[in-house]
Write a structure and sequence with these properties.
- The chain contains six helices and 16 strands.
- By secondary structure, it is α+β, with helices and mostly antiparallel strands.
- Among the domains are: 52 residues, Membrane-bound Lytic Murein Transglycosylase D, Chain A; 114 residues, Glucose Permease (Domain IIA) (Distorted Sandwich).
- Strands 7, 8, 9, 10, 11, 12, 13, 14, 15 and 16 form a ten-stranded antiparallel β-sheet that branches. A two-stranded antiparallel sheet has the order 1-2.
- α2 packs across α3.
- The N and C termini lie far apart (103 Å).
- About 19% of the residues have low confidence.
Length: 328
């Protein structure tokens, strides 16, 4: 009996030794080749914009009124403050040829009621409609509420059977209300959006404009806030001058001293672009312009050399066009 116990113990010890000497199973990578990590030689650089555009968050600096100074005219005042000169004229009841006097106080803020009619490409004037004054207030129809008969439960009898059925008495509701809908619960949970007005676009929402170079040529004069309010681009007479972005022509003529034959395009409530010293103007006021459309031919009117003087104005103030245009 004792020999049997020794033999069992010996077998147990030998099995434990054998297990401890067995090497661990190898680890095999069974992931597909596509999911394995690959060596990255160099980080991929993200495409950066060619020019860092300034971010504006300041409010509108322009005053409500302006006092006319010596040398001013309605065209220059409109350009300096970023307004259409015809809107200023209409706002102040100034008829053509838009003569103003030194010391005259002009209202600059243009109300919607005095907005100048726009003209489409076919020459048809489109007058904005004042939806506030012309809105038709529809009064809902009177809702008839039936309050009778009320259901009254009576025990069955011959007398009750012989009684005539009661007639319904419609009663007009004292307050006007909308007709009830089929699903009153859904109507009650639906938010009331009738009295909400559309939020006006902020200045930040008007900053996103895709600007393009108005012509080809060498920049011979850079922006300088004191001496040069834009870029001067050299070229040849008759060279195409294109719109830097889509918009509406708000000036086409030669009434501003120092600019020669001039085109001004309004792109939104914030930005204007200016194209000066043209030899020939190909667009008219009120015309809608697409980006890249030819608007003039380069020239040397009111200039000593053939060039395009190009400006970008934000709320009437000149800004550096090179910060908005892509690097060449």
């Amino acid at each position: 009996m004792r020999n049997t116990q020794y033999f069992a113990i010996l077998c147990l010890v030998m099995s434990l030794i054998a297990c401890s000497s067995t090497p661990p199973a190898p680890v095999i990578d069974r992931l597909p080749s596509s999911s394995k990590a690959t060596k990255v030689d160099a980080p991929v650089a993200k495409k950066q914009p060619s020019a860092s555009r300034p971010i504006y968050k300041a409010g509108d600096w322009r005053p409500d009124t302006y006092t006319v100074k010596k040398g001013d005219n309605l065209f220059s005042i409109g350009l300096e403050h970023g307004y259409y000169y015809k809107d200023i004229a209409q706002n102040n009841n100034i008829p053509p040829p838009y003569n103003i006097q030194v010391g005259q106080v002009l209202k600059l803020k243009v109300s919607k009621d005095n907005a100048t009619p726009t003209t489409n490409n076919d020459g048809v004037e489109i007058t904005p409609i004042n939806t506030e004054s012309n809105a038709i207030s529809a009064t809902p129809a009177t809702v008839v509420a039936i309050n009778e008969p009320k259901a009254i439960r009576e025990p069955y009898s011959d007398e009750a059977f012989k009684k005539p059925l009661p007639t319904a008495k419609p009663i007009a509701s004292s307050t006007t209300s909308k007709p009830p809908t089929a699903n009153t619960t859904e109507a009650a949970n639906k938010p009331n959006t009738e009295n909400k007005t559309e939020s006006k676009p902020t200045l930040e929402s008007a900053e996103d404009i895709e600007w393009a170079w108005p012509t080809k040529g060498k920049v011979i004069a850079n922006f300088n806030e004191a001496s040069n309010k834009g870029l001067d681009i050299a070229g040849t007479t008759g060279q195409p001058v294109n719109a830097a972005a889509a918009g509406k022509v708000i000036y086409s003529g030669s009434d501003l001293r120092g600019y020669g034959k001039l085109v001004i395009i309004k792109h939104n409530s914030t930005y204007l672009s200016v194209y000066a010293h043209n030899n020939q103007i190909l667009v008219k006021e009120g015309q809608q312009i697409s980006a890249g459309q030819k608007i003039a031919e380069m020239g040397s009117t009111d200039s000593s050399s053939v060039k395009l003087h190009f400006e970008i104005r934000r709320l009437g103030k000149s800004v550096d066009p090179s910060k908005y245009l892509a690097a060449i």
